[in-house]
Amino acid sequence: MEQxxxxxxxxxxxxxxxxxxxxxxxxxxxxxxxxxxxxxAVDKVSLSIKRGELVGLLGPNGAGKTTLIKILxxxxxxxxxxxxxNGYIPYDRKYxxxxxxxxxxxxxxxxxxDLPAMDTLYLLREIYEIPRKEFDERLDDLxxxxxxxxxxxxxxxxxxxxxxxxxxxxxxxxxxxxxxxxDEPTLGMDIVSQRFVYDFLNDINQTRKTTIIFTSxxxxxxxxxxxxxVLVKGGKIVSDGTLNQLKENYKTERSYVIETDGTKPExxxxxxxxxxxxxxxxxxxxxxxxxxxxxxxxxxxVSIDEDKMELDEILESIFG
Amino acid sequence: xxxxWYVARNRFMVTMVYRSDFVFAMAVAIFRTMISAFLWRAIxxxxxxxxxxxxxxxxxxxxxLLTNATxxxxxxxLCFKIGQLVKTGRLTPYLYRPINILYENLFxxxxxxAISMIVFSAVMLFFDVHGSGNGNLFVLKLLYFxxxxxxxxxxLSLIGLLGFKMxxxxxxxxxxxxxxxxxxxxxxxxxxxxxxxxxxxxYNPFGLVGSTLTQVVMGRIGRREIESMILGMLLGIVIFxxxxxxxxxxxxxxxxxxxx
Lengths: 320, 260
Fold this sequence. Notes:
The structure holds two protein chains of two kinds.
Chain A: E1 4-18, H1 23-32, E2 36-50, E3 54-58, H2 65-72, E4 80-85, H3 95-98, E5 101-105, H4 117-127, H5 132-146, H6 161-173, E6 179-183, H7 191-207, E7 211-216, H8 219-224, E8 228-233, E9 236-242, H9 243-249, E10 254-260, E11 274-278, E12 281-286, H10 289-295, E13 301-307, H11 311-319
Parallel strand pairs in A: 3-7, 3-8, 5-6, 6-7
Antiparallel strand pairs in A: 1-2, 1-4, 8-9, 10-12, 10-13, 11-12
Chain B: H1 2-17, H2 19-44, E1 51-52, E2 55-56, H3 57-73, H4 77-88, H5 92-95, H6 101-112, H7 114-130, H8 138-160, H9 172-183, H10 198-201, H11 205-209, H12 211-217, H13 223-252
Antiparallel strand pairs in B: 1-2
């Protein structure tokens, strides 16, 4: 049986915030009294990840993906539920645990902005107590694979975004962690750099058996990387399975392109999503084929074509 | 321990990148000393041989030079850095790496003021050899200097924890600067204060790294008092260390790692 490296049970995390009252009066009231509100960022999430899996956490902005990652790496302490990562309680932040994880959080660089990446890597060699020979070999291998050998001695502020992310990846993997956490790893990258990162992560996952958990809202990331897709919405997991399973599950949810005489099709009975494509074309998502046929009024319909859903459309229908 | 050496080394290299910052900080300290020296010249009324609270004019200028030099070493950067890290969420990388935040901050500060510290230690040695005070106390004075630095970092780290509660830390800046100017004795020795408690004020954290440190260097404080202060600082370090760790644990519960 494959070893479980991450286990979350009924994990709950709430953010505190306050709503600013409108106008000057509101601002004065707020100055003396602020009503603190809570928002569930992670809502009773249960998740199990086995060693060597490559898992994509996919969801719209504010879905709770990054919060879940922060809980798993020990930045946030869940208010309820139990989390185990590599056998440790992440929030205890024991050195033995931290030495076995690698993290890349898009905007929270661990690279020193004014120094070459090499200087940060020397520091990481000491932090993770990596023997020099091992460090040199691993660095050589990672820099070669990511094609940044000649960039390691240039101050980080002079590097492009893609080069910086590649250096971040080296920093996160230089100590050969068991689990790699990536938050939006390809955000803002060009297609060539994205391709490099996909190939690299797939290689690391296969050759080193590193468990990789990444968040994204890019379809390309999911299609190129994730062997398993966990869909997160409103702090809850709404789907968990392989990419094929996801497509299979939504096979019953078909979509149709309806051409009309210019007026809107009457679909009240269906109660599912409809988007306007052009003046006389509409796309309709339905749960069951029969439902739409029964409820649609054909008086203004010119034609109906089945439109097989692509991954992005499936996600649009879930997150929309 | 080696990892902290690399922390200091990297920070020192960053300081080397921003050489103008160092030059400007030194220029500000020199200007401030000059202004104070001219002011005190007027107060002394040109009387080269007159004394105030045991200071001749020349000794006072020397005092001002040394206290202003200490302000290059004991900076407030750390205090506001923690607040900024919390506000921007950039504290996160400090938390997922197996490294102690307090020690990392201590060695980063050492790296940032390494040049000033080395120069100041050399000045300390010079005064010990050629000064008029009790000679041969260099090791003791150096120990005082090191402990006062550690205590300073702890005090700033403690104040910096307010950054977990306050969104903006900058309103604290003028308050801190004012307290420092007054209680570190940057403009005049603390003995000049009219209060009866003046004798105790020199033991406040600002005073220990400003006025009192300067007087230790100038040989105006004897062995016994330095030893007492070292013991006092050791006690302070232990207390503040535990207090910091306790408060940090509590404060981290407030940290949400702002932004993505």
